[in-house]
Amino acid sequence: MGVARENVCCGRRRMCCTTEEYFRATTLDHNVLQLQIRLAADFRADVPNCGPNGYRKAGYRQYILGQYGHLGRRNRRVAPSCVVRCIRHWFPSPDGHYMGYRSE
User: Model pTM?
Assistant: First the structure.
């Protein structure tokens, strides 16, 4: 997470959002993410990517959708660093390289 805007935590003082049951159920659950991956692939007429990279992207998408509603082109949000770290911990890249936030 090299860019300053990527290094911002959720800001909750008492309990990080990554410790909540809702977060685990919607953002880290393999079944939920697999369904989201298959739905997105079906929508785009693409092949589902059910590897760690696909699960990470689906996890980020699930979190952003839950927090902000529908986003899309030219309307993007940065996931808090605590969320990114948690998702990367659950679905690590085999080579240790990550894409990071892209504004477009």
Answer: 0.78
